[in-house]
Structures are given as C-alpha cells and as structure tokens.
Specification:
- Pfam families: PhoD (PF09423).
- This protein has 342 residues and is an alpha/beta fold.
- The protein has a single domain, classed as Purple Acid Phosphatase, chain A, domain 2 (4-Layer Sandwich).
- Helix 2 packs parallel to helix 5 and helix 6 runs parallel beside helix 7.
Length: 342
C-alpha cells in the first residue's frame, strides 16, 4: 500500500498532523527557531536553501552527510566543502545565522566508517574549516567533532549538544542471514560514542539548566528495525543514553537525527520522564528515498516523508511547547508534531 504524505491524529499532550501550508503562513512567531537537515550533495540541485532562509532560523544544524566525499584525499574533500560554502543561498544563511553540526560517514570519509578510518584526524580539520571554527578553538585539539552551545533568549535558554557517532564507533556486525545489511551487536559489545565522549555527554546533561536540551545524532536513536546504521546496532548504548537522560533531570530533551534519506517522527516514554522522548529524523536535503515502500518502526508517530525536506523546531517558552515540522520545497509543511513539555 502506498504511504501517503498526510495524516491527522490527536494526543493528550501532543498532536501530529500534515496541513501542507507554506510555513510563512503560520501566525504566531516562535521565541526560537532551529532548522536542521542532512544528506546534501553538491552535484545535485540545492533547492531548499531559499526555503530554509525564509524560516529565519536562529540556528542551522547540519545533521551529517553534509557533502558526499567518501575519500581520504583531503584536497578533494576540501574542494567539495568549498563548493558547498559558495552555494548562493547557503552562503546567505552562513552570513545571517549561527551554524552548528556534526558529520556522518560520507563527509567523514568512509562509507559506514568508524574508528578504523585512518584519515579521520585530517578529515576532522577539514570539517572544522567548513564549519568556520577558529584556528585557536579548543575543538581543533579534540578527538572527534562533539561539542555544545547554549543559546539564551531572555530568561530562557536552549542547549544544543552535538554528538560524534563516527570517530569512536567500533565494528558493526553484518547480517548474513536476512536481507538486512546490519544486525545488532551482542549486548555490551562495542561502542558508538567511546568512553571520553560518554563522560562528556553525561556532564553536559547533568549540569544543564536550559529549558530544552537538543541532542544531535547523525544516525537514528529510536528506529532500530530497518537493518541499516543506527543506535540499535549497539543496544546497550541505547539503554545507556536513556538511563543518562532519565537520571540527569535535564529539561526538554529532544533527539535530532538524519542519515536515512527519509524524514519521520519517533517517540518513546522513559520511566522517569513526564514527557515523551522524540527522535526527529530529517533527511535528505538534495535526495530522498523516493522508492520507499515501507519499513517497521514501532516508535513512529505519523507517516514517513520520502521527498526532499528539512526539519524545523519552533520553541514557545511560556507554553513550554515545541512545534516540529518537516518542510519541503516552496516552504510546504509536509507533516508536523506538537509537544508540550511539563
């Protein structure tokens, strides 16, 4: 059965719908707007940057696969990053908006690559150049591209926590028994973040006093049945993140992810949280899984969007509310989810 691009559902604290309205027709101006996306090729039309500009985001977050290089040739990698930086509408965005982000395998340099990629340190420097990180920044001496930034809005604030799911990620387990590409490791085997990054992340959540804490992961956290890359390949680390989030008492934790060439909302309830944990996947910016015919995801809320799109989070501090939107070309809202954080 062909998956449709729209649905209407109502929840106690959250509503999800698709209205296909241009985003500029929304009446109430949010207190803070975060836009994000992933999977962007420089050899394909970059059609969405004008629409992203029109949302007037306070921050743009790259979710990974920001270019498609798959190379250990740093000159070639640099040339591709520079070409993206010269894309007219993206260049305007950089001039007017804070830019944050992480990488994924195709801009990291090795398809499905992890800790074994020998050029990762050189690649990291090229990534930081692309992100316009100053030469004297401490990030230049850090192993991995994880980092965080706090945005203050009056008496309120949002902390964006950027994870690196490549630099430390250990071996995946191929699935030679089914049609899936990868199967989960044995419980306790391997890591996606590595010890140093885990310690850093736990401290970030434990010490944050922000109204909202946005965790950016290049790969999906909740969806785990598709047989591609994701946190589900390290089930013990899925549980570890859930435990850290619960025990930290950090406010308004949200996960953003990419990688899959589809966009969707996933949601789960953690025992010690009075709001659901949402994993908002936005992918891709220049190409999508247009032949998508369905896949299981027990956490999914609504339908899968399999056309080019980007994600928007609109924050209302007084209402403790976030509007999540999947937006396509011409600013059309393809699907949206509303969540109140009590």
């Amino acid at each position: 059965m062909k998956i449709m691009y729209f649905f209407i559902a109502t929840f106690l604290l959250a509503g999800c719908s698709s209205n296909k309205k241009p985003i500029e027709n929304e009446s109430a101006k949010p207190d803070f707007t975060l836009a994000f996306g992933s999977c962007n090729r420089i050899d394909l039309p970059n059609l969405l940057w004008d629409d992203i500009l029109n949302t007037k985001p306070d921050v743009w977050v790259w979710g990974g696969d920001n270019i498609y290089a798959d190379t250990d040739d740093m000159e070639a990698l640099r040339a591709m990053y520079n070409k993206q930086k010269e894309q007219t509408e993206y260049k305007k965005l950089v001039e007017t908006t804070d830019i944050l982000g992480t990488w994924d395998d195709h801009d990291y340099g090795l398809n499905d690559g992890g800790v074994e990629f020998e050029a990762k340190d050189a690649s990291q420097q090229e990534f930081l150049n692309f992100m316009n990180v100053p030469e004297d920044s401490p990030l230049r001496n850090r192993q991995g591209v994880y980092n965080s930034k706090k945005f203050s809005v009056g008496k309120h604030s949002i902390t964006i926590i950027i994870l690196d799911t490549r630099y430390f990620r250990t071996q995946l387990t191929p699935d030679n028994e089914t049609s899936k590409r990868i199967k989960p490791n044995e419980y306790g085997e391997g890591t996606i973040l590595g010890d140093v990054q885990w310690t850093w992340l736990e401290n970030e959540l434990n010490t944050s006093k922000s109204d909202f804490n946005i965790i950016v992961s290049s790969v999906q956290y909740l969806s785990n049945e598709h047989g591609f890359e994701g946190w589900g390949n390290f089930p013990h680390e899925v549980d570890k993140l859930a435990t850290i989030i619960e025990s930290s008492n950090a406010n308004g934790v949200i996960v953003l992810s990419g990688d899959r060439h589809i966009s969707e909302f996933s949601k789960t309830n953690l025992k010690r949280m009075n709001y659901p944990l949402i994993d908002f996947t936005s992918s891709g910016l220049t190409h999508a899984y247009n032949g998508f015919s369905g896949e299981p995801n027990k956490y999914r809320v609504g339908e899968v969007i399999f056309t080019e799109s980007f994600g928007i989070l609109e924050f209302n501090f007084s209402a403790k509310k976030v509007d999540f939107k999947i937006v396509g070309d011409n600013g059309i809202v393809l699907e949206k989810l509303e969540q109140v954080y009590e």
